[in-house]
Write a structure and sequence with these properties.
Layout: H1 2-8, H2 25-30, H3 39-61, E1 65-68, H4 73-81, E2 108-113, H5 115-122, H6 127-137, E3 141-145, E4 152-156, E5 164-166, E6 172-175, H7 185-191
Parallel strand pairs: 3-5
Antiparallel strand pairs: 1-2, 2-4, 3-4, 5-6
Helix pairs in contact: 6-7
Amino acid sequence: MRGLENLGRVRLSKSFYMRDMLYSEISNIHGVPNVPDRPDVAIERGRAFCETILEPMQDTFGRLAIRSAYRSAAVNRFGNENNLNCARNDNPDEIHVWDYHDDAHAVAGASVVVPWFADQFEKGRDWRDLAWWIHDHLYYSNLWFFPKLAAFNIAWRPVPVPKINSYAAPKGSLLRAGQEPDETVQMRQKRYADFPSFRGIASPVRPR
């Protein structure tokens, strides 16, 4: 218990602590501990994720809602085996198991809601407006959008693999790995011209 309390106090970035990332309905309801097998690895990757992705978004749009972030390998395995919307631990697109034992699978990610955008999405705004903003501003991998609240999965990887998919209409793949966007920079910028000015630290990735 004391060790878990100390883990929760670890600061990942300006605004986020490890405890913000540990909440899990699966863990709470089914009693599977959501505790890292390799805390140092989870912290290192979580810091990279928070500093390069979450902080710039929160600086720009205001408070983010983190719906599901870190999952232990045991929690994620239980979720997968019981059809609780969890990918296999060894799935190349799995983003929640930050300390997976295969270091070639280095990743950290979360399911996120941007309340500022969710309000607009509820009134009919296209999720692709936010997707292209993220693509043009953040060092991200693996965007998956969902119909409720315009929530999306987003991940950090040491070498980003930008790709965008959605379960929200229009469903399907917006950007495949290695593919060039089918909209020009100017077209994408027009989509999010009314967004707040970008207030985060500039990403090493330039608009593509």
